[in-house]
């Protein structure tokens, strides 16, 4: 019985160390993607002179919001790295930022009212889930006990 516990402990440590190494590589890749997104956004500033302002600003706005959604992914990865678990609120924040990026892109398109209603209901449901996740988080339950 004791030998099985030692094997389980070694496997658990191996898994944790492997996960940390892979997560470190993922964080480096995310940082590189953020850097590339920022550089691409600055590169797109040339569109102000080449296109109409409306189209150029739409492109730049979508670039900036995409970088911000990648920053939210980085925040989720760092939370897992430091706390050993993924916070649901960080994931929901990431999805909300990504969906809002799409909503900003929708402003420049003609949309059917059904599509708009679906997007609004998605954002509202994500906001509701975010509120519920904060209200019923394990940390708040520990504080109440």
Automatic annotation (TrEMBL):
It holds the Pfam family PsiE. It is a multi-pass membrane protein. It comes from the Bacteria. The chain crosses the membrane at residues 21-43, 55-78, 90-108, 114-133. GO terms for cellular component: plasma membrane. Its main location: membrane. The keyword NADP does not apply. The keyword Membrane applies. Keywords: Cell membrane, Membrane, Transmembrane, Transmembrane helix. It is found in: Cell membrane. This is Phosphate-starvation-inducible E. It comes from Geotalea daltonii (strain DSM 22248 / JCM 15807 / FRC-32) (Geobacter daltonii).
């Amino acid at each position: 019985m004791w030998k099985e516990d030692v094997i389980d402990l070694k496997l658990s440590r191996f898994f944790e160390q492997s996960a940390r190494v892979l997560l470190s590589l993922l964080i480096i890749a995310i940082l590189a993607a953020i850097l590339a997104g920022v550089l691409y956004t600055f590169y797109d500033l040339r569109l102000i002179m080449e296109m109409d302002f409306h189209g150029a600003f739409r492109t730049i706005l979508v670039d900036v919001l995409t970088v911000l959604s990648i920053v939210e992914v980085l925040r989720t990865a760092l939370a897992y790295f430091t706390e050993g678990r993924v916070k649901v609120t960080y994931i929901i924040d990431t999805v909300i930022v990504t969906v809002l990026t799409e909503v900003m892109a929708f402003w420049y398109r003609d949309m059917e009212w059904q599509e708009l209603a679906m997007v609004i209901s998605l954002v509202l449901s994500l906001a509701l889930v975010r509120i519920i996740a904060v209200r019923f988080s394990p940390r708040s339950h520990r504080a109440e006990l």
